[in-house]
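Q: Give me the 3D complex with magnesium ion.
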Amino acid sequence: MDGNGRWAERKGLPRLEGHRRGARSVDVVVTACRELNIPHLTLYAFSSENWGRPKDEVDGLMELLSIYLRKEKKKLLDNGIRLNPIGEIERLPDWVNGLLEEVIEDSAHNNDMVLNIALSYSGREELARAARLICRAVSRGDLEPEEIDFNALNDNLYTSGQPDPDLLIRTGGEQRVSNFLLWQLAYTELYFTKTLWPDFRKKELFRALDVFESRDRRFGLVGTQVRND
Ligand code: IPE
Ligand code: MG
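A: Here is the predicted complex, encoded as structure tokens.
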């Protein structure tokens, strides 16, 4: 979800206005994905690197996150959406974490859609964490080093039990992954749009899904193996 700051700057508004308007795009996109029966959606809301932004902006983002959680909780619950944070959420201020825990707990039994929200997230840190968890299992004697395979890694990620993403959408014009889901993106289709996140609404989402549908996914095989035509 990139481009909030530029959206605001172009209008001569404070950056936080862009984030505020971006929160509305979150609501629109989450609702649309639920209507489309998309079972997993991951939003990159705040990276580990984002802690380095000016304090005012970080504080404003925390405030907006808490407003979002309070405002959208009922909608998430009513629509069968389970909120699953990914990232070092213990680094969030206690008052934000309290709210987050409340929504996580209340939505835990929902299973129509998983809404992963990446907060204080770093793909590299997620992989380092998986390595730590695996090492602990080995030192406890629960796992042999020879048993460490693709699945062992998968099982120790924040996204364990979930399928890899089919599509990554990055708004705001930059063409990079910025430390997002580094392991999980192995065969994900990448879609970049210049549209800034606050302007990314239903029409833009449908355009991205159309492009996705036109992609030829072979997963390293040859066309005749993966196509049933
Ligand atoms: C929002 O966009 C992403 C967040 C970190 C919340 P940016 O704040 O990165 O916007 P730009 O890139 O400065 O336009
Ligand atoms: Mg940015």
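A quick observation: The chain has two domains: 4-122+166-228, 123-162.
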